[in-house]
Structure formats: C-alpha cells, structure tokens
Amino acid sequence: MNPDVTIAIDAGGTFLKGAVVLSDGNLLPQLYVKRSSRSDSSAYEIAVNLVDVIKELAAGYFAYMQQLSSVKGTRFRFPRFHIGFAFPGPFEYDTGVSRIRGLNKYEQLYEVNLKTLLRSELTALASEGSAPEWMTQLAAADIRFGNDAALFALGVSRLFPQERLLCLTLGTGLGSAFVENRSIVSGKWGIPDSGMLYAEQYKGGTVDDLFGSRGILALADSHDARRQGEDVYHLAIAARQGNSSAIRVWQLYGQRLGEMLRPYVAEFRPTRLILGGQIAETHDLFGGTLSEALLPEKMPLHNEKQMQEHVFHGIFQLVKGT
Q1: pLDDT in tens, 6-31
Q2: Coiled coil: which residue ranges (predicted)?
Q3: Quick check: 77 pLDDT over 80?
C-alpha cells in the first residue's frame, strides 16, 4: 500500500512556510521551507510561488526517502500526495475561492479559484518532458484549504483530545476557534456560525481590529504610550522596563479582551484558553487582567510557542478527512 504524504503550507501575508507530514503524523525531519509569500503579486504569480514551494517539498521528500531506502535496503514506494494550505480569510475554504480584499495581502486573488489555478499549474508542469516521474502523482493530489487559526486549534487539540478549547491567535488581527473533542465547533453555545470571532462587534469596532496589533497600537496612542514608529514589540519592552503608560495599555488590553470573550466563555465553558502568535509572547503583561475579566469563569491560560508546528499538524488533520 502506498503511503499517504501531506505537503503542508502555511500561507501568511508575509511568508510561506512549508513542511511534509508523514502518514504517522510526524513531520519529515530537517525539511522546512520558508520564503516570501509575494502576496502583493498577481494571482498567477502567487500561484506559481505556491507551486514552487509544493515542488520543493515533494522533491525533498523523495530525496530523503530514496536515501533512507538505500541505507535500509528496502524498496521505495511512490506516495499518495495530499496538499493542504492554512490560508487567511475571508476565504471559501471548501471551493478554494478567495474573498480577501482590503487587507493588503493576496488582493489579486479576490474571487479567483486558487484550487483550480494551482491544479492547472501543477498539471502543466507534469506534462513537460523534463518533469520527474513523481510530478504526475503530485499534480493529481487532493488540495484542501483551511483557516489558519482553526488549523492551529486542530493541531493544539491533539495535546488535549478530550477537552473543550478556546484558541486565539494574536497577530495583526485576532484569529479564533472553538474546539471540542478535536473538532471545530460553530453555530451553538453562542458561537458564530462561522466559528470565528474576527467579524464580531465590540465597543463600536470589530474584534479583528481591536485585539490584534492594530488595536493595541491604537490603544497605546490614546494613552500617549509610544513614540512615532514604535510597534508592539517596543511597547512590551517599555512595560517590562516599568513604563507606567505602557503597563496600563497592556492591562487594558487584557481587560477588554476578557470582557469581549466573557459571554462566549460563559456559554461554551472551555477547559483551557490557548494563545498563539507573536502577541501571545507578551501574555505576562495582560494575562492577569484577562483572567480577572473572565470571572467567575476560571480556566488555565496557555501560551503555545510551537504555533507553526501546530498549524502543520492541523493541516494534516484537515486532509485526513478526505
């Protein structure tokens, strides 16, 4: 029986990050790709860039397995490929059609069927006379898309398989997912039908605008807590060095985040709150007021530092459903 191999790609607005997940769920050792996402390019150029990463990972897999087979004296078997993407939204994940617009990334993909575009490019490469034999299998691979925050949550859930989790990714905006028994939950217990909070309203703005870096910097500006050109990183340093204005900004951020989450937490009753992303690294500055704002609900707060690894495992979980 041919092994199943997942090519997992996290398509961020700045970088593409890729790995290979074997049929046992383990990442292929020492094979990791990181390159510019070129998300400001044309739809075709974006697709070509993604296909280049797919090819590089597939070639790396074949080189590794052929060497391993040679050392062990075993026969190398061609795999059955799956290709999975963690992609930002809004995006029609089932069909592969992008709805991203006005976010300064992947603008030229708006209303484009990326799955069709990728399939066309892979098929064209496989038909070339110089194409390696495995390119035919790669061109026929199933292609799946999932929300980046949801896939992070699925990846984390393997550590807590029988628990309810509320997972947040804190970066430029706020990504979120609710998980029960390793499955994404939506449309009940007060959770939006999308399963995500980014578009929900809080104090006259959207959750995505208020609780990512944009919101933190706006909060800092309203308290004169940063100088021109300083970002969230500098604001965290200032707070840790005892700057009272910066400390207050982080405390307010945690308080407001907790207030926003409180009704969802009260209905869903998660056993853990999981944080990922760059801003999660500053949880020591806002975690206290966040927990206080969630009272009387109490739960452990975890900062998961291996976010990228969790996303890759989430992609593996996604394609296992095919």
Answers
A1: 999 999 888 999 999 999 999 998 89
A2: none
A3: no
Three-state DSSP class for residue 247:
helix
Query: Which phi and psi angles does 306 have, rounded to 5°?
Result: -90, 55
Q: What is the pLDDT of residues 234-259, one digit of tens each?
A: 999 999 999 999 999 999 999 999 99
Q: Which of 87, 108, 140 is the last residue of a domain?
A: 140
Helix (DSSP H) and strand (DSSP E) numbers for the chain: 10, 14
Q: List, as one string, the DSSP characters of 133-190.
A: TTHHHHHT-EEEEEEHHHHHHHHHHTTSTTSEEEEEEESSSEEEEEEETTEEE-SSTT
In angstroms, the Cα distances linking 214 to 64, 156, 162, 173, 301 are 42, 26, 35, 7, 23
Closest Cα to residue 220, out of 250, 254, 242? 250
Q: Look at the block and give the residue holding tokens 């199933």.
A: 142
Two tokens at 289? 């007021």
The predicted structure's pLDDT at residue 76: 67
Task: Report the number of distinct structural domains present in the chain.
Answer: 2
Report the CATH number at residue 11.
3.30.420.40
Instruction: List, for residues 276-286, the tens digit of each pLDDT value.
Output: 988 999 999 99
